[in-house]
Amino acid sequence: MGTARSIVSITGSAIGGGSKLLFKIWRTLRKGRSDVKIGAKAFYKTLVANGIPKEDAKEIAIAFAKPAYEILSIRGILALVRDLDESGELQRFPFSV
Amino acid sequence: MVKDNLSDESPNQRRRKETKSEADELKEVAEALPELFSAINDAVPQLISNLIGSIYSPEAAGNMAAGIGKFYSNLIAEGIPEDVALDMTKKFVGALDFSKIMSMVSDEASFDVSRKKRRKDKDNYDDEEYE
Hints:
The complex is a heterodimer of chains A (about 100) and B (about 130). Chain A has about 100 residues and is mainly alpha-helical. In chain A, about 80% of the residues lie in helices and about 0% in strands. Chain A is built from 3 helices and no strands. In chain B, helix 2 packs antiparallel against helix 5 and helix 3 packs antiparallel against helix 4 (about 80-95). At the A-B interface, helix 1, helix 2 and helix 3 of A face helix 2, helix 3, helix 4 and helix 5 of B.
C-alpha cells in the first residue's frame, strides 16, 4: 500500500514539477527574447546617435542580437544544460537535438 | 552471532524485510522530489535571465554601443574618410564576436552553478560524515 502510494506520489511530482519547469522556462525564454529586443534597440539608437549610418547600425545590431536568439531557443537551452554536465552522464538526444 | 540471526530468518521474512527497505527508499524519493523540483524551478529561469541581463540589458548594450560609436567618431575626428572609418568600425565589431562573448558568459554561469553544486555536495558529505 505504502509502495503504491509512493509510486503515485513520485509520478505526480514528476509530471507536475516537469510541467511547471517547462512553463517557467518557456516564459523566461519569451521574456529573455523581449529583453534582447529592447537591448538591441538601445544598442542601435546609441550607434545612430554616435553618427553611424542607419543601415550599418542595423547590421551591427542584428549581429549583436543573433547569439542571444540562438541561446534563447530550446536547442540553446539543451546545449547549455549539456555544458553543465561535466561528467558526461547525460545521454545525447537522437537526431543531434 | 549476527550470522546465526540471519540464518534463523526464513526466506519469507528476508523478502519482507527487503520489500520494506525498498518501500522506505521509495518514500524518501517521493518526499525529496518536490524539493528538488522547486530548487530547479527557481535556479534555471534565474540562470537564463542573469545570462541575458549581463550583456543585453539596455545599459550594458548602450555602453557597448557607446564604445563602438566612440571608436567611429574618433576615427572621423582624426580625419579618416567616412567610408574607411565605417569599414574599420565593422572590422572592429567583427573582432568583438558577440557569440564568443555569449559562450564565455554561459561558461562562467555554468561554472558558477557547478561550483555551487559541488559545494552543496561537499556540505552534504560533511554532514553525513559528522552523523
